[in-house]
Amino acid sequence: MATFNTLLVIHVLSVVWWIGGVFTVTASLLPIFNRLPAPERIQRIKQFEGRFANQARIAVVLAGISGFWMLELKYGFAYLRQGGWWIALMMLVWMLFVVMLFVAEPLRLPAKVGLIQKPRAFLVLHAILLTLALVAIACGVVGSRGGF
């Protein structure tokens, strides 16, 4: 039980760090940056991403390791086929952010496809990802307490 509780603490703190950062970017920084002229906006986004991306990567890795380990300890992976849809939702959100942080960002895909040059679209994408993450967190809280 001590192992599970330690993993749970690591998991919750990692998710708070990660999604709290996404919330801050989406609700505070991007709206401020979007008021700036395009070159300055893009420069500010790159500056912030440079600082936050590594933190987010660490938090996402910790959340993933602790989450998968807890799943195996408490339920086993077969639980996903037996009604653990809320865990599958959390895994989906985690995988989306893994792809963003470890594939799309290092390859500079948002800039290459022009997304970073479209402030409204960039903000909407962040808002969609944030909303999905918050829904996954809510479902995880309820599901882990036997609510589903």
Give a verbal description of the structure.
This protein has one domain (2-144). With 148 residues, the chain is an all-alpha fold. The protein is elongated, with a radius of gyration of 17 Å. The two termini are 23 Å apart. It has five helices and no strands. The protein has helices spanning 2-33, 38-74, 85-104, 109-112, 119-144.
Describe the structure in brief.
The chain contains five helices and no strands.
Shape: elongated
Order of helices and strands: HHHHH
Tell me which oligomeric state these chains represent: single chain
- What fraction, in percent, of the residue positions are helical? over 70%
Write the layout of secondary structure elements.
Blueprint: H1 2-33, H2 38-74, H3 85-104, H4 109-112, H5 119-144
What features would you highlight for this structure?
elongated, 5 helices, 148 residues, single chain, 80% helix, mainly alpha
